[in-house]
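From the pipeline queue, job 12 of 40. The input is one protein chain; the requested action is below.

Action: predict structure.
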Amino acid sequence: MIATIIEGLDLAASETLTVAQRNGLAELVADVGPAVHNGTDWTPIANDNAGTFSYWRINGQIREQAEQSTTTCANVFTATYPLRYVAMVDRDGCGGVETARAAATAIRGTERDLRTSLGANLVEVRSVSVNVDSAVVARQEGLPPIEPGKALLSIDIQLAVTGRASCFDPCENGGSFLCRIIEAQTWAKIKACMSEAQIDAATDDLCDGGTSCTVDVVVSVDGEEVETLPDLDPCEAQTININISW
């Protein structure tokens, strides 16, 4: 579930805060700083070649509470996630307070889509706080002083998810947030969000891409094969005239 949550929140934040490398969920590792696990070890996020980047981390204890649903007879379960989003951005492009606040607003706007994607009863962004003091954020995240052309900001949120306890299986693959949102939409709504280039690419892939869709037609008379007509287009009307001379 947490991977799906992070994917949805990250897509929202990226609409406003543009970075070169989005790292998803990370952890603060002693003597390493913010890092992502590569399966066997930790890969630092902030290095000499990092440029602009972003990451998420769980910033405290996840609180869980069982309660009675107001809409069904079944008991439901609420988990509250304390999450922090950290972004290193170019100061001349995205370093302003208002830009960070716009990203926070976009994160708040994910509630309905997250509820759809997670199959939850309710998703609430209960609180949001924004810090654009680069020096303070750097100390909190164990990062070196920020160079003048960059800005480091953080957005802390408390996200509460309410649903059946089985939905919170930590080992269950929740699937792609983006795919679940698309699956829940009509084609008209999906197309309205697409650029002309995306529509052209989809048309090429769905109508012209892949293997050939032509067919070979075998013509038989009285059970005897007399000819094979190759590479006919099944989407076009075809006329086959057979003249039999006695």
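Job complete. The helical segments are 2-14, 91-94, 97-108, 111-118, 134-141, 177-183, 187-192, 196-208.
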